UniProtKB/TrEMBL annotation:
This is MFS transporter. SUPFAM superfamilies: MFS general substrate transporter. InterPro entries: EmrB-like, MFS, MFS_dom, MFS_trans_sf. It is a multi-pass membrane protein. CDD domains: MFS_MMR_MDR_like. The keyword Heme does not apply. Keywords: Antibiotic resistance, Cell membrane, Membrane, Transmembrane, Transmembrane helix, Transport. Pfam families: MFS_1. Residues 1-24 are annotated as: Disordered. The chain crosses the membrane at residues 31-57, 69-87, 99-118, 124-145, 157-179, 185-207, 219-239, 251-268, 289-312, 324-345, 352-369, 381-408, 420-439, 503-522. Signal peptide: none annotated. Residues 33-527 form the Major facilitator superfamily (MFS) profile domain.
Amino acid sequence: MSQSVVKNAKADASPPGQAAPAGRRLQGHPWLTLLTVAVGVMMVALDGTIVAIANPVIQTDLKASPADIQWVTSGYLLALAVFLITAGKIGDRFGHKSTFLVGAVGFAATSAAIGFAGNIQTVIAFRVLQGLFGALLQPAALGLLRGAFPVEKLNMAIGIWAGVIGASTAAGPIVGGLLVEHVSWQSVFFINIPVGLAALALGIWVLKDVRAENAAKSFDIPGILLLSAAMFMLVWGIIKAPSWGWGDTSTLLFLGGAVLSLVAFALWQRVAREPLIPLSLFRSVPLSAGTLLMILMAFSFFGAIFFVTFYLQNVHGMSPVDAGVHLLPMTGMMIVGAPAAGAAIGRVGPRIPIVVGMVLTSVAMYGMSTLDAGSGSGVMSLWFVLMGLGISPVLVGATEVIVGNAPLELSGVAGGLQQAAMQVGGSLGTAVLGALMAAKVTDVLPGNWAAAGLPPVDGAQAQGLAQAAQLGIAPPPAPGTPQQVVDAMATAVHDSFVSGMSLAFAVAAVVAFVAALLGLLARRGSTDTGPAVHI
């Protein structure tokens, strides 16, 4: 790369013979930059799982309907998924430091507003805003890392960043369970306030903005509208498909509309003066493969792991906190494995670690498909450990492949693309594997029910029984029901749930293996970053 890096003279120059002030020397420090962005994204990752524990209490306290409480989660995820790429473009245009700081302050402020909300409508409104501010944080964090670290150390930085995200995501059920049980559901949101203030203080002190001289000077408004519409229809269609039905007219309209909007977006990007996502970006085979790899990884991992919490809580009867503790082997491996994967990728490139990681993930998914209602903690921990070890190099490697193969002026867009791919893959995996599991449970439940010697049920009662069994929940027994009958009902339901879960994990194992093959196209980032301005 022959082009030099241009620095803002006013910001960096010191009088001759005089050292720069200590604060200025720390500004832009790579490892302090990593610490700062890790604090910020920790809020977003933690919030993705911690709120799920609080939802039942929120529903009771605010007298919310099931549809309302679904919007507490769906509204956040939709706003996050729809705005991620546009948020990355905002960072590329106005600087990733400013974007990150606005995201951190906005996320903390909306968290406070949710905690003080007196009705479910206010909670939903601020959850949507929270998702928008969360979308500003994540691509900006990757853009700041891309600008702060040299190429040879970027993998290690992304590895630690990924470890923080993995740890925060997995810690959500434990932290959420403790807060809801011993404090209140509002504390689940209030916890973001000190974290957000810490991110703000560190960001002002440590972060140095990095942007390319040839970054876009205007926004592609038609492109933003078309892509936002496509992402909304795609993610909403996926979220609602299990309840509407995959062949339902509404589902087909949303998914078909998403496809049409994406086609219109691609056509517009070919003629736009300053496109939101230049299609030339996808001429990079590694970047395109990395994006698809991220979708498949999220499909198999988040789609399958969704059922584990129900398996632990409803089949094994664990509390949310106990279930979170049982997931610690996977969490621990992600915390340790992500930085180690970053170091390995720095030495041998991303291809081998990604392929090995997805093969390990595929084996772990297959192992999870062999669990039954009586499986012990030891065998579960074995597969959790293997899954954590397998996911770590993929999360780090695919991120580096996407962000590292994009030009510096599109690092924010690339960061948004990486996060959007993960959101779409996770939503798709949860919906598709959930549909397969539901169909399997519905199919085997009548046979298991009859084999247990229980009287047949039909009509609305049978439908309610099937829906409860899809979550591993045995029906409440009538007063005076013999314990032997209660146990038989629980066995029939749990065995049916495990059959569905086994199918979901088996499909996830196949998807993970396909992703391993795709990993053969991965290649270390090599795009010329071009001239940059440090502010």
